[in-house]
């Protein structure tokens, strides 16, 4: 009698001798997962989205990805992607902006850093004013796999070296740095190996190159240095500027580099582009 009673009790609790099922990740509400994702980096969100349907669904929530997008994402979608921000999900906007996106007839590129969502902009030499650029006695246009624009300018020899340009762009609040991407020597490939001819490099050790930067908000910066990166690309720092959170209008940058001492010629340098990126990215410039 007693044994029968205990058997009935077990059956009424969910089966003969079976223990209650334990909670699993599948039991976590999608809304809770989305709330947690708001405090995580995009690469971490994408990894966790593979766990199950709830995590995948949570990873698609617009309010999650809106916290990762820069404050000017609507400007970027309209200017760079050429679409309405309302026509795309926030995750799709983030994914598409993380790729290099060309604008202004392919002479400029903008992209987001995948981990932080911060903006980087590159300006091809083709969008700049360069003394003698159309004269083949001085400059050559060279195809290059090492340029994000697939073409670089190679200076053979010149007396008056001067480059100037402008960029009008809506930057999110933050501190940014502007660099000129240059290399002493001309790169080529022989038997599949990268080589760099530095025979024509001259004149850069006599006088320094002067770099200048100014903004439409009145900020100014300048620097001088000798070009020294033989055989490898170097990023030469022109200056920094700050974008205030109250400034919502596009910012206009003016920048230049020059070595105009006509007592000697200078040559053998490759010029790729100008880079604008958050100042905190200076340690990983080789990625650009």
CATH class of the largest domain: Mainly Beta
Amount of helix: 10-25%
What form results from the Cα inertia axes? elongated
What do we call the CATH homologous superfamily of the largest domain? Galactose-binding domain-like
Runs in which pLDDT lies below 50 for 5 or more consecutive residues are 1-17
Number of domains: 2
> Separation of termini?
81 Å
Q: What name is given to the CATH topology of the largest domain?
A: Jelly Rolls
Number of strands: 15
- How much is the radius of gyration in Å? 28 Å
Q: Structural class of the secondary elements?
A: alpha+beta
* Estimated share of beta-strand residues: 25-35%
CATH architecture label of the largest domain: Sandwich
The largest sheet, given as strand count, sense and whether it forms a barrel, is: 8 strands, antiparallel
Helix-strand string: HHHHHHHEEEEEEEEEEEEEEE
The average pLDDT is 89
The tally of helices reads: 7
Protein name: F-box domain-containing protein
Organism: Populus davidiana
Pfam family, one: PP2
InterPro entries: F-box-like_dom_sf, F-box_dom, PP2-like
């Amino acid at each position: 009698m007693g044994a029968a009673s205990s058997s009935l009790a077990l059956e009424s609790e969910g089966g003969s001798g079976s223990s209650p099922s334990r909670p699993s990740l599948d039991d976590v509400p999608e809304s809770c997962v989305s709330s947690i994702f708001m405090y995580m980096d995009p690469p971490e969100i994408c990894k966790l989205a593979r766990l199950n349907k709830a995590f995948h669904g949570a990873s698609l929530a617009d309010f999650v990805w809106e916290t990762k997008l820069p404050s000017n994402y609507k400007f970027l979608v309209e200017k760079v992607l050429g679409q309405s921000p309302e026509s795309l999900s926030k995750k799709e906007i983030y994914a598409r902006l993380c790729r290099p996106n060309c604008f202004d007839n392919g002479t400029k590129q903008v992209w987001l850093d995948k981990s932080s969502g911060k903006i980087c902009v590159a300006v091809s030499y083709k969008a700049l004013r360069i003394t003698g650029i159309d004269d083949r006695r001085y400059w050559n246009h060279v195809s290059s796999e090492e340029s994000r624009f697939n073409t670089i300018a190679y200076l053979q020899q010149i007396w008056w070296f001067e480059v100037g340009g402008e960029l009008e762009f809506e930057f999110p609040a933050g501190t940014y740095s502007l660099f000129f991407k240059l290399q002493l020597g001309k790169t080529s490939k022989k038997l599949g190996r990268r080589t760099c001819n530095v025979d024509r490099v001259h004149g850069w050790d006599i006088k320094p190159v002067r770099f200048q930067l100014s903004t439409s908000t009145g900020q100014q910066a300048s620097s001088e240095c000798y070009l020294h990166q033989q055989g490898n690309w170097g990023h030469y720092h022109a200056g920094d500027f700050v974008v205030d959170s109250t400034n919502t209008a596009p910012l206009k940058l003016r920048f230049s580099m020059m070595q105009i001492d006509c007592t000697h010629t200078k040559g053998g340098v490759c010029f790729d582009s100008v880079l604008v990126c958050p100042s905190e990215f200076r340690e990983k410039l080789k990625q650009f």
